[in-house]
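Me: I keep going back and forth on a fold encoding question. No explanation is needed for now; the record alone will do.

Assistant:
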Amino acid sequence: MQLKVEKLTHIYSEGLPFESLAMTDVSFTMEQGEFAALIGHTGSGKSTLIQHINGLLKPTSGHVYLDGVDVNEKSPEARALRRRIGLVFQYPEYQLFEETVLKDVCFGPKNLGLSEEEAEEVSREALALVGITGEKLERSPFNLSGGEKRRVAIAGVLAMDPELLILDEPTAGLDPRGHAEILDAVRRIREKKNMSIIMVSHNMDDVASLADRVLVLEDGRLIMDGSPREIFARGEELRAIGLEIPSAKDFMEKLAKMPALKEKGLEIDDGAITIDEAQEEILKLFGSKA
């Protein structure tokens, strides 16, 4: 699925005393299989943008196209395309309601017209993809941990077989274990499904380890668009708009400036953006010292 956002502008309460310009002239294109992270401080327009992508909001001007079709068209084709987008809002576990985990995930596929058997099959597959299997399928979703509930909610969207998955702060509010489990689930989803993913996040370490493209919003404008390495190399610009860089990148930049290394004639590449990359560079440094 190709996603094309073209000169998107949105004004809330247009023409009223409290009208607010939330998004201005945003344009970008995503191809099938891309993983894009959407970052920006609170109020930068992230939520407004993702709600336009599946037609929850209509633009004041501009367009959102899926495979060349405007999502806001009043046509059977546009409605069918919108169904191919899975949107997982923040804290989706609050939307769980069924008696068991399996029944909850089956709800969406059954509403799409699948039989009981078909819905159960795709739901089991989706749950396995996020690491929920065995006796947990018959548990009440309300008796699971926070991270497990979050993964069940994501499975409920996956079971409807989207081609584009939008995750709005998928790790927000989770403890370290739940956080790690969500990241593992997202990696499996990408590996197994080859679907396009847009992830809204304030966690730059997650962005560095998962995304292959980063979109930066500021005051409703798209101000940067590039690979994680390209974007995080612009640390001063990011900090100027209230964002941080990955902890590994921050550490390596500080390490590279240490006088002790320069005195010994050691130079370190401060371009690492993940923990694994930083570890590899530090091991190379010690190897050269030896």
The longest strand covers residues 20-30. The chain has a mean pLDDT of 93.
